[in-house]
C-alpha cells in the first residue's frame, strides 16, 4: 500500500516489514500508545527509505492513508511519543499553537532555563557590576568576560536577561529599558 504525505510532498510504501518495525516499537496502553524507539526533539522517529519520519505522522498515514498539504498531525494528549490514532488530529500550524496556548503548555523560559543560553545569571550580574564600577563600554566588558559585544549590549539595553539585575541598579532605576 502506498500512502501520501502532501505536506512533506512524498509517499511511503507500507510493507509488512515497515509495519513490523513500527509496531515492535509501540507500547500499547490504556491511554497513550507510546513510541519506544528513537526520538528527535521528543517526537518518535523512524527511518523509512532514507528519510526520518515522525512516528505520529506515520501513525496518521497508516490509519487514514493520506495527509493533506499544509496540515500538521497534532496531539490531543500533548504526548509527543504518542501514536494512538484517536489521540491525533489534523490542524494548521496556527491550530497547533492555539491548542498549546489554550492548554497552558507554552513555557518561554528565561535566562538559564533556556537550553541554548550562552550567559548565566552570574555573568550577567558581572556585566552590570563592571559597567557600574568602571564605566566601560560593551566591547571592553565583553573582551574581559569572554562574551560577545552583542550579548553585552543586549544585557545593558534591557533587551535580554532583563530579569537579572543587581539590587542597587534596580533601586536607582538604572536598569530600565529605554523607551523606544
TrEMBL record:
GO function term, MF aspect, one: endonuclease activity
Pfam families assigned: HNH_3
Entry-linked InterPro entries: His-Me_finger_sf, HNH_nuc, Homing_endonuclease_His-Me
Domain HNH nuclease: 55-96
SUPFAM superfamilies: His-Me finger endonucleases
Coiled coil: none
Protein name: HNH nuclease domain-containing protein
Record organism: marine sediment metagenome
Amino acid at each position: 500500500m502506498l500512502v501520501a504525505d502532501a505536506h512533506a510532498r512524498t509517499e511511503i510504501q507500507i510493507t509488512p516489514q515497515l509495519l513490523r518495525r513500527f509496531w515492535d516499537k509501540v507500547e500499547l496502553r490504556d491511554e497513550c500508545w507510546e513510541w519506544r524507539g528513537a526520538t528527535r526533539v521528543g517526537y518518535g522517529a523512524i527511518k523509512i527509505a532514507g528519510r526520518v519520519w515522525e512516528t505520529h505522522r506515520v501513525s496518521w498515514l497508516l490509519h487514514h492513508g493520506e495527509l493533506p498539504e499544509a496540515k500538521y498531525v497534532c496531539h490531543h494528549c500533548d504526548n509527543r511519543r504518542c501514536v494512538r490514532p484517536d489521540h491525533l488530529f489534523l490542524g494548521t500550524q496556527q491550530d497547533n499553537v492555539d491548542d498549546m496556548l489554550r492548554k497552558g503548555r507554552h513555557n518561554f523560559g528565561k535566562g538559564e532555563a533556556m537550553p541554548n543560553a550562552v550567559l548565566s545569571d552570574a555573568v550577567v550580574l558581572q556585566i552590570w557590576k563592571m559597567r557600574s564600577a568602571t564605566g566601560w563600554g560593551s566591547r571592553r566588558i565583553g573582551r574581559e568576560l569572554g562574551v560577545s559585544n552583542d550579548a553585552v549590549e543586549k544585557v545593558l539595553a534591557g533587551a535580554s536577561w532583563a530579569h537579572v539585575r543587581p539590587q542597587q541598579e534596580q533601586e536607582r532605576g538604572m536598569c530600565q529599558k529605554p523607551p523606544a
